[in-house]
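Job type: complex structure
Entries:
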Amino acid sequence: NAGVTQTPKFRILKIGQSMTLQCTQDMNHNYMYWYRQDPGMGLKLIYYSVGAGITDKGEVPNGYNVSRSTTEDFPLRLELAAPSQTSVYFCASTAGNTIYFGEGSWLTVV
Amino acid sequence: AQTVTQSQPEMSVQEAETVTLSCTYDTSENNYYLFWYKQPPSRQMILVIRQEAYKQQNATENRFSVNFQKAAKSFSLKISDSQLGDTAMYFCAFMEVGDMRFGAGTRLTVKP
């Protein structure tokens, strides 16, 4: 019973590098989300998707891109990493009444 | 956009006592869900309790209960018989189809 799986769990990036955070869920959920959590803060919505082929911006989308080619996968792309993107990233999914979270991806940009 | 406000950045409570965490939200929707999540230092997000807006009865899960006031857009969490393991960040969250927003969190410390 995998639930929501995020990879990698930890990553250090240099300024200007790019990378993709992977997120997969095996619950056939239509809705998927990416959040970031800065130290001592709450979760901010980056992007979300209501189904395959449909994505939309959240509160803090700048510097990120997403795609949703399948129901299961919702990767988050960071282009030209900046120190301000140092954060913990959470992927989540829902069928409508309960959110399931991945364990988080700790990203440091130096 | 919906907003969620937690006005208590930090709270503390003695072990075995009761504590209430506050949350207010703003929405023009009528159907939605409200949640309280617990986040220990591991950063794992743990669902504590969920409330459906169309249900008038307040949700209860063991030592955790909510006071849901729909007209006032208030959703507080009461923790009874506090335990040391309840020490964590607590986030209030609002969900309407397609969007879910979180409050800034309340750091709860349970003292022995």
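Summary: Chain A touches chain B through 25 residues (CB under 8 Å). The two ends of chain A are 36 Å apart (CA to CA).
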